[in-house]
Amino acid sequence: MHLVIVESPAKAKTINKYLGSDYKVLASYGHVRDLPPKDGSVRPDEDFAMSWEVDAKAAKRLSEIAEAAKASDRIILATDPDREGEAISWHVLDVLRQKRAVKDKPVERVVFNAITKSAVTEAMKSPRQIDMELVEAYLARRALDYLVGFNLSPVLWRKLPGARSAGRVQSVALRLVVDREIEIERFVTREYWTVEADMTSAGAPFTARLAVHEGRKLTKFDLGNADAAEAARKAVEAGAFTISAVEKKPARRSPAPPFTTSTLQQEAARKLGFAAQRTMQAAQKLYEGVDIGGETVGLITYMRTDGVQSAPEALQEAREVISGLFGGSYLPESARQYRTKARNAQEAHEAIRPTSLARNPGSLRLEGDLGRLYELIWKRMLASQMESARIERTTVDLSTPDGRTGLRATGQVILFDGYLKVYEEGRDDPEDEDGGRLPQLNAGAAAEVRKAKADQHFTEPPPRYSEASLVRKMEELGIGRPSTYASILSVLRDRSYVRMDKNRFIPEDKGRLVTVFLESFFNRYVEYDFTAALEEKLDQVSAGDLDWKALLREFWGEFQPATAEVLKQPTRDVIEALNTTLGPFLFPGEGGRTCPKCGTGELSLKPSRFEPFIGCSNYPECRYTRKFGPPSEDGETPSGDRELGTDPETGLTVFLKSGRFGPFVQLGEAEKPKRASLPKGWSPEAMDLEKGLRLLRLPREVGLHPEDGGVILAGIGRYGPFVQHAGVYANLPGVDEVFEVGLNRAVTLLAEKKAGGRAGRGEAAALRDLGAHPADGAPVKILAGRYGPYVKHGQVNANIPRGSDPAELTLEAAVELLAARAAKAPAAKGRTRKAPATKATAAKAPAAKKPAARKPAARKTAKPGAKS
Fold first, then answer.
1. Which domains does the chain have, with CATH numbers?
2. How far apart are the C-alpha atoms of 287 and 297, rounded to whole Å?
3. pTM above 0.85, yes or no
């Protein structure tokens, strides 16, 4: 028997069908070992020796693989064809050798760029050994990431409370986002005007823009105010224009190459609205195989690649499909050959393309994300081998007899659509650069002005990064690799260093502070060129041109002293350095650091484990604080702080303030005043005295419980609005009900809660009904939960993966999620999870025995090293 080891169970299932009964295919379920997250996993003093730890879930699977290996005649490692895949094979083989499951058996490595029967069987004919140069590049990258993370993050924790962590590549990606935000803040808007005229010539209407004014060619800012624009508009309306020139220039637009990992993520973000992670999840499924007519088929080639070339047979098939669908006029003379322009590209694999273009999206009828992504990949590949589009760009100049006023009209005509018949690449900020269609216009003909108008414009700052534009920028700079982009962006969001607004990255305060800290004390390690140069050295390792430990020695020799030096610096010196760097932003203007409350203290950055803020050096005598960022326009009070009025009961002033944990209301200014945070959904702008007092009066007494006479209270807590009595809390559906709930309603909610119901909420809102579960016919629904959408079947709930669109989830995918969730459910305190009893099993079940009285167990002393 031949044992084939892959990393994915879906991949194993597909390959198992292609190989005969002499083969057994098992999955490792991804990486089986990793560096333990503790000091000493990489030991520079021992020439970078590394300790590996087998994942608890992987231990059982490795034992199964080892048993199968002992019973086999040959071991074939068939993990993915990249650095990570090579590393997984190396890890699995190393564990098998430790378990003495290999002995003298032949061990071979095979790779295939697509999971199709022909690709798999061909790969089996050409085995090789594990590529240790690729493995060493993986080891070097893993060691670098570990050394940076486990040495830089503790510096952050000690010097900058609230910072989560720093990473070798993620910190550089964060700097890109922060630098763009600073660029936007420093941008100075300029006003400018344009003048356009609705024209006709020989009865044909068109639009032209003022290009020459008072005998001089206009530049962008020549019409800088309304008066200048109005004078120019009147000059256009008063002019008698003749078409002085009509220039037609033929042009060609060529198609873009097939997708790489980066361009697929960018285009899926622009056209489908997919996050990078969502794109890769769908692409993984398309690569591993989809059931087509009872046969599992890999639909696309490997999806982690920076190559744009395609196999000759794929190019020939593309030409045949194009000819069949559109005719010979859409075929170029020969197949198009592409080479990547990306920095550091390795071109180790083909571009991402369908394994067969004959499988068009309409015939496959894939649902949800898979169907939309496959169609995008199919069209892009087909278009990449089609004839160029031929267009005609037309420029028409018009002028007055004296030449002092001139207009220009531009447009284009598509003479032959070519590849545009199938696909056109999207843009982050689409602009119609070539203008619209123009009528047939002749030089020397008269043109009449029907109407002229002047429009005001303002220059705009560069846009914030979207996922597509940030991935493209990282690729241009040579930062990261195709397989890392999705995880890098996810880490920035998960650690709250950035937030998303209208699909654009905005740095959070803590993200900005971390970036400034790293630029101030570890500038070299967040430089774009340094990070890209390190990627190039890792590529040299994978090519066999550089020893991986020499690379680590060079890096560590400079990095370790830098971290030690910063650790020696007093925290107050670090904070003062940050005050100086951030001074123009945090403390603008002369005397910007003087406390506006006491007048003698100096304002300073105050890191905290929640959010950074600004505070006075005279604390605790002066308790002035404001949010991280510049002060309000008047400079006297923290941004957003104001007086709401006077409490009629106490005579104290009610303030609306903005603190490090968000906006809140405060009663008076005593040393420890009463405060109440604004609940979710309440905006500071809409706050008034009445609302402030209602919050400060909480918790509110609803009435006395009819059973025991105890007080029922309504309030807002950590988990939202509630009613409470005798230690029982029941949730309320909304904040407003805290102030309105009556005694009867409160008693009912508490009774439901005590009985085990979901008081105040009922079942979560259903987003979609997917249909009946194939196992028992019970409904499967998508519900809206507190922590995001999830699928529900009976008593089993399963989260929908982050980045997936609930609207696109199919019943089959939901059943898989539910099965995976049920399999993961842990035994609770020694109890096993039982399947719901059917009528048959209920009839056979013996009568329950009365449990024997339990004696109190003697308390054992934990042994040293025992798990608690």
1. 2-130 (3.40.50.140), 141-182+467-569 (1.10.460.10), 191-254+390-458 (2.70.20.10), 261-387 (1.10.290.10), 700-754 (no CATH), 763-821 (no CATH)
2. 9
3. no
